[in-house]
Amino acid sequence: MMSASSAWSLGWREDDLAARFPRVIGRSERTNELRRQLAAAAGCDATVLLRGESGTGKEVAAWSIHEASERRRGPMVVVDCSAIASELIESELFGHERGAFTGALGPRAGLFETASGGTIFLDEIGELPLAMQPKLLRVLESRTVRRVGGQKNVAIDVRVVCATHRDLRAEVRAGRFREDLYFRLAVLSVELPALRARREDVPLLIEHFLQQQSASAAAVMARIARERRHELLQHAWPGNVRELRNHVERCAAFGRWVPLDGDVEPELAREEPSGEHRVAAILGVDGSKAYADEKQKWVSLFERAYLEELLRVHDDNVKAAARTAGIDRAYLYRLLHRHALR
């Protein structure tokens, strides 16, 4: 296993790398080093393991590798290994033949076949069931898949990129992840830095997120960002880039600064509005807006806050989170996609 940056020197200039990887936002040395590693990974066909805390942008890195590689004209197939039921994952990845199991009414290509000619991104690879791991290893080594219920091997031409927020070496020591699979996946290893390790990128990230807001909301948030620059730069951002993006969107939705710790803003609390106006003032309810618009804003804010906390409590384990929430895992997965949490 080697880091992508140590694979070889490509001699790219920083400006060239920034243009080549437009999804990667920032000018800090840690971000420049990340781009160098992505350039090395994009320049070959080796399997890549993306490591980093939740919210650091591992899927962005995977897309960046694909888009800068020779496979960019091929498909990019994203698979969240934590979101597929253990009894279905083999069929999802490798496909099945008619009659392979109840409900298999016809042959179906798996995601590896679908990705042939391009890249398959196996997100949350650390959640792959132990029983599936030798099957994935065989596919990686043979470059063929056998559909569930099938009798022949199907050749595939696919580049594999995977990601995890877990320490897979610790998982290997604990017996939850196969050592041979770990070494097969980590041919090139790319570490994504936490946002607290590249705080100087925060203003550029905010500017990037504001481009996705309406002009009026962006103007308000730009003013807030100038006034609260010190707090934004000093915050630890345990949720990394995902937390920063969500904070920007909350402030834009409210039209004012929302405290990072979730408490009521001190100066707002000191105003002590009386009676029925107090709750509205504290919550930032805008009576000049349509009921449906204000309600949707609050539903959306609640959903996002709840989902963030749910994932945090369950260490990003979607299956356990769905069980606690009392909702179907597929529905939870749709909610996570709706709020860009997956």
From TrEMBL:
It holds the Pfam family Sigma54_activat. GO terms for biological process: regulation of DNA-templated transcription. The keyword Manganese does not apply. InterPro entries: AAA+_ATPase (IPR003593), AAA_lid_NorR (IPR058031), Homeodomain-like_sf (IPR009057), P-loop_NTPase (IPR027417), Sigma_54_int (IPR002078), Sigma_54_int_dom_ATP-bd_2 (IPR025943), Sigma_54_int_dom_CS (IPR025944). Keywords: ATP-binding, Cell projection, Cilium, DNA-binding, Flagellum, Nucleotide-binding, Transcription, Transcription regulation. One of its GO terms (molecular function) is ATP binding. This is Flagellar regulatory protein FleQ. It comes from Sandaracinus amylolyticus.
